Structures are given as structure tokens and as C-alpha cells.
Amino acid sequence: ETEFRINVRRLDELTHHLAESNMLDEMVEALCSLSYIQAKCAAGRLNDLLQEYGTAMKLLPETFHARTRLQEYFDFVRLQGNALSIYPEIILQQAFHSSHSASPGIEARSMLTSVDHGIILEEEFRADRVVLGIFNTTHSAGNQISGVCLLDCDDGASLCFSASYDGSVQIFDARQARLISVLYHDSSLISLACWKSFENIVVAAATRGGGMCIWVGAVVGDGFISKKTTLDVCSDTDMYLGRLGNTVAIACGRNVFVTDEVFSKISLKFEVASDISCMGASRDGHSLVLGCDDQTVCVFDVDIQASSIHHHGFDITAVAILHNKKLAASGLREPRGMLGAVQLFSGRIILWDTETKESKGELEGHCFGPVGNLDFSGDGSKLIAAAQDWEGPRVWDCSTLDCLVCFRAHGVHARVARISGDGERAVSGDVEGHIKCWQVPEGNAGFLRRDNDNHVGTVRHITSCSSDGKMMISAGADKSVRLFSLDENGFHELGKYEVHDSDVNRLDVAYDFKTAVSSSDDKSVKVWHIDGLGGGLQEVTTLIGSRGWIECVAMSQDGTLVASGDNFGEVKIWTSVDRSSWTCIHTICTAEDFCSSTDSQSLKVTHATGSNIGCQSIGLSCTKSRLLVSRGDGMVGLYSIDQDCRKFSLLAYTEAHNITRQDGMVEAFLQFAPDGSTFLSTGDPRLRVWNILSDKITAMCEYRLDGEGRRLVVNKNRVAVSCWNGWIYLFESPLHEGPMFNYDLQIQAKLWHSSRVDGFILSSSNESVIFCDDEGHIGVWRLLPDRWSTSS
I need a surface site. Which of 267, 420, 566, 767 has the fewest CB within 10 A? Predict the structure, then answer.
């Protein structure tokens, strides 16, 4: 594999110099290059790239010959920015599946060469990832799978059908992963439907040219004998089809066309109020459901009578309906924020009753893209969903609304998936022409998550406050501090304390679990007494005097020293003898210290202006001899504390993490390891391990993350790190005989949550991870048998 090298300085200056030299053609060529876009995204310069497009459009005359081409590349980057900022290496894939008439798609298809697309998978899979069949398809290289179907035969055989943009339909024996036959057409196939009709099998596929081809046949011996029929339907390039009785229904634009029973002509045409964006049909062919651009869903029966119209309020990207018409599912394209100028979307699934239009529940888990495909099992107990993300198809329990399994082995977008009638198998196809058949487990395979929705808004932090780990305190953006317990039946709220006047940001607890502190945007720190006998929390006092909101706070293990950091980069030190009366004994100004230090290891601060000098995290060593402070500019400073806690001296500071956010900040989070001479930090897509030796900070090793690090926690020899994109990494290192922390971290598990995780607790028994997120949830991941060893 060739290493992808980037010269960041040239990358930042290239288009600027071309524009200054009036070399407009060369500037456009750079901005209209997938390699240049990939390099900018890999360097974390997505927002700069979007600005370059805006500047170029202003410089180019209205009559400039390449103006349309530049706009098409700008639209591509704007729409794909969420994906490319995280996985820049998939740019060719994303461009290939963009509009076929737009310049990025044309460039991608010209770059694709014929390569071997045989499947190579890991030797071991989790129990929830059992692959029954791995089909080495003969679909042309780089051609997306546009449709898949599973069909159970009377003789016990199971057939898998796949359609591709290369114009072929391939038929496999799903139980033996054996290719039976290949059906060919002279244009791209964009959707697929298969069913049994008496003794025959009907295979219907829509073509990109606005037509349809239908094969009617049967499996004879080791092959498939069929008769092919073609039919011109419309001139639209986006078509959807499905079974309707013994005919085929084709949707394009606002129109739905229905063939006769021998598929020789269009026998019926009807129109809906808005363009159709997706289509689904029940397994028995008696019901048809259409998702439209006006955000409505229309349900029709076999007699083309509209029986239900339901308005969702969001763009509809996928629909499915159960054979009895009592349950339908809609995939919604829901905005979830901005990344610079790029709109981000997530996929939400609504289950609803087609008669009463009442919601039966929501399925949330497709965080990185809208859902593109839905399919019910025969009895409606399970639903499979494939989305435009990298997670893989998910199977949901329609009664409990739990995610039973996520098939992650594709590694690329798997946009189409179907589940068998009995709900025991599933098949999925991805954008690179790969087909996989899966076993669907019974029950929830993997980690169980229970949510608690008592906080309103983001839960900013959570920490344990009992020796057995069954009691915890949470801090929320709803100005409250809450006390919870956890048992086999879930979470139980023991107390709610609304004493802060603004968001509560961070918590810390003394080693004996008798005292806790909370910091808030109201510029105060609250000290709490923890009554372990069921008395809850009692507010002891309020520590005030900070100039700005207090982002972070730390308490020494003996509960007599508190350090709090505000958004001006100031750290206040408080001490107490009895934990009741507290005195501020010192104020550290990191902006002055970092700039005035002459330590040979220190870096010259060139960007410590504005809000990025605010304190992001504070750590106190177990002996109270050292203090760590991280700031929003990625700097980490090490201070020494004398024996009387009266003198604080800056020993060293270093730039620990790179700024990757548009606002010029990095939320560097750190924590001391138990030995006190090691600390860990995150903030960019790295977990870094540092050693403090002779009052110097030395980077020992680092571990790459699939996203910007958000929070971390260290528990003996185990480390947990959360990322902004929802990933949680669990690391473990071999235990030393002595107190030294072992740097040799191994990934023990990699979990994923549908929203940002802002804090978590590692249980002492290594059997659960308790977490809080930015949507107000507190949950727990539990370890089931045989899951830790193979869940990386």
C-alpha cells in the first residue's frame, strides 16, 4: 500500500498563489481534482477547502468555461464533507456514486481500473457477525450493488439475487455460497425485486435508461433457465420497482406504472402529488408504500386504492410495509448540525401504524448518513436497515426497539440489505460489488445498553461515588447534579439537585467517596458531602472568585485540595482541613506562565489568544505533588506543588494535540495514571501516553483513533477513550509487578453509540461501561459471554 504523503504548507498556499498569479485555469484544475480534495481532507483542511471554492467562484468571470465544473466539485465536497473529513481515503468511492453526469463522478469512473474484488475477511468474527456466505461476485470492479433479494424455495434451498450498475444480476445458492447463474442487460441496473409466481421465479430490475427487464424462469440442475422481457417505461433515470400482486409496479417522477401479468406492456398508470423518493412493497405483493418529496408516505393496496397518507416532517429516504398493512417503517433524512459550511445528516427510522398513523417507536443508530433501504421479516418482528454510513446494516427488534446486530464486516457503504422471511438470515451488498449473507442472532448480541432520560439536554460528565461502583453522580446542561444507583433492573434516580445557575460541566470525587465537587458555567464550584447511608448529596459550600465559566475541576484523593480552571486560562487552588471550610490559596495564570517560561522543552506560544487559552482539563497526581492543565490551544502544562500546597511552579509545557476544529480550539482531555509519573491525553484523533521524568514531559507512544478524542478515563491498567463521532475504545495493558504504568496498550473492545459520549465509568470488575451522552442519556454497556476477546 502506497503511503499518502502531504506537504501541508504547499497544500495551504497552492490555490492562493495560483489566484495571485492570475493562473485561473490551473487553480480550477487543482480544485477540480479528487487527489487535491483528498489531501485537503486528510490534512484536516475541509473548511479551508470550502472557502477556496467560494473565493474561486468570486474570481472567475460569469462566462468562464469551467465555472459549471467547479460548482459541481464544490457541491460534491459540501455534500460529502462529513464522510471525507473522517475517512478521506474513500473519496473515489464517494465520487463514483455521486451523480453520473457530474464531473466528480466522471473523474472517478475514469480512474477506476479492473482489479480483483474477491472478499478477504478477518479469520474470526463475533457471534453477532456470523457470515454464512461470502460471495466472490463477478460484478465488474467498482460497480455498486444496487439491489439484493433472498428467496426461500420449497425444496429448502435459499437463493440470493444481486443487481449491479454493471448491468448484471447474479444468482447464488445462499447456503453454499455458490454462483448459479448470471443474467445480463446492456445498461446499469438500479433496483431489484424477486418473488415466486406459481412454479416460476420472477426477477425484475429497473434500468438507468428508464426501462425495465424481467426474467421469468426456474433453477434447473446447476443453472437458472429463464426468458427475458424488456419494457420501456419512462425517460427518468431514478426508478423504483416492486411486486404488486402478480405484476410489477414502477415508480418514477410522480407516476406509478403497473404492468400486465405477463409483463408485456403497461396496463395502468396513476399519479401522486409529489415526486417519489423511495418505494417498498409487502412480501405478498398486496401492499405498496411510496415515500414522496413532500415528506408524505402513501400506502396503496393491490387495487391501487390509497388507504393511508402520512406526513413525517422530514425528507423520506426509505420505506417498508408489512404484508398485513398494519405496520410500516419510514427512514428519515434528519439534519444533525453543521461541520463548517457542510450540512450533516443522520438516519432515523419511524415505525408507525398505517391505520391510526400513530408512532410505534423510533430507531436511532445510523449516525453518519440517512437510511437507504428497509425490509421487514415475514412476521414483522424484525427490520433490517442499510444506511449511507460505514457502520453496516442493522437488524432491529420491532417490539423492543433494540438493535439486535450491526454487520460491520463490509468496511464500506452497504446501502442495500434484505432479511429472510423467517428472520434468521440477511443479505447485504456494498458499493464495491461485494455480497455477504449473514446469520441473524436471537436476542441482543453484544453489549446491552439501557438509557435513562431524566436529564434534559447534554449530560456533561458522570463519575462513580461508591466503592462498589453502583452509585454515580451526573452533571448536566440542565443546571442539575443527579445521584443514581444501578442494579440488574437498570438505573434509579436517588436525588436531583438544582443549585447551579447554569450548565454543570465537570465532577470529581475524593478517594474515600465522601466528598465531591462540581464546576459550572455560573463561575462557581460546589462542594458536596456524599452520604453513603441513603442520605444523598448535601451541599457543603460554594467556591467563587473565578473570572469566567469553570470548564474543569479536580479534587485530590484525600479530599483536601481542589483545582478549578476557567475559560480565561486561570486555575484556582483551594484547600481545606476539614472539607467544610475552603480557602483559595493560589491562582495560576497559564497564559502568562506559558509565554514567559524559558524551559528548553517548552514551545513558543503563537496562537494562545482569545477563547482557545481556556482550561479544558485538570489532573492532580495521587500524591498532590503535581498538577496538569490542558488548554483549548492543545497545550499541556506541568506544575509542581510543594509539601504545604503553597508554592506552585511551572516545570514544563508542550503542545500535546493538534487543532482540528473550525473555531481554532482542541478539547484536550487528560488524566494521571495510577503511578503518578504517567499521564494520558486525547483531543485529536490520537490517544497519547506521556512520561514525567526529571520534571520533563516526554511522549512515550500514541494510538490512532477513528475520530477526534473527546474524553478518557484510566482505571488501573485499563483505559477508555470516547470520540466525537460516538466511538468508545477500551484499552488494556499487562499489569506490572510494581506501580509503573505499562505503555503497551491493546484494544480490548471498540463500542459505538449513536451520539457523542461526554463521560463514562469503567467498572472495577471489567464487566460494564457506564456512559453519558449529549442527548441527555445515561446508559451502560454490559459484557456478555465471549464478547471482549473478539470485539475490537
Answer: 267
Q: Radius of gyration (Cα) for the chain, nearest Å?
A: 29
Q: How far apart are CA 313 and CA 332, in angstroms?
A: 9
Residue pLDDT, tens place only, 539-565: 999 999 998 899 999 999 999 999 999
Average pLDDT value for the chain: 79
Return the pLDDT at 609: 39
Q: What is the per-residue DSSP string for 274-295?
A: S-EEEEEE-TTSSEEEEEETTS
Q: What is the distance in angstroms between the CA of the first residue and the CA of the last residue of the chain?
A: 23
User: Would residue 294 be called left, alpha or beta, if left means φ above 0 and alpha means ψ between -120 and 50 degrees?
Assistant: alpha
Task: Tell me what the mean pLDDT of segment 267-276 comes to.
Answer: 89
User: CB burial class (10 A; 0-12, 13-18, 19+) of residue 584?
Assistant: middle
| CA atoms of 651 and 566, how far apart (whole Å) | 21
Please state, as a whole number, how many other Cβ atoms lie within 10 Å of the Cβ of residue 215. 24
- Is-contact 41 49, C-beta < 8 A? yes
Among 346, 370, 443, smallest CA distance to 403 is for 443
Q: Which of 705, 681, 703 is nearest to 692 (CA)?
A: 681
Please tell me the distance from the alpha carbon of residue 148 to that of residue 433, in angstroms, as a whole number. Answer: 11
pLDDT at site 83 = 62
Q: What angle do CA 242, 248, 250 make, to 5 degrees?
A: 65
Which stretch of DSSP H or E encloses residue 594? helix 590-596
The residue written with cell numbers 398513523 in the block is 357
Q: How far is CA 435 from the centre of its chain?
A: 23
Indicate the residue type of 488: E
Distance CA 445, CA 439 (A): 12
Q: Is the pLDDT reported for residue 324 higher than 80?
A: no
**β-bridge mates for residue 639, sequence order:** 627, 650
CA 760, 765, 766, 769 dihedral sign is negative
CA neighbours closer than 13 Å in the CB half-sphere of residue 393: 31
> Distance between CA atoms of 413 and 440, rounded to whole angstroms?
20
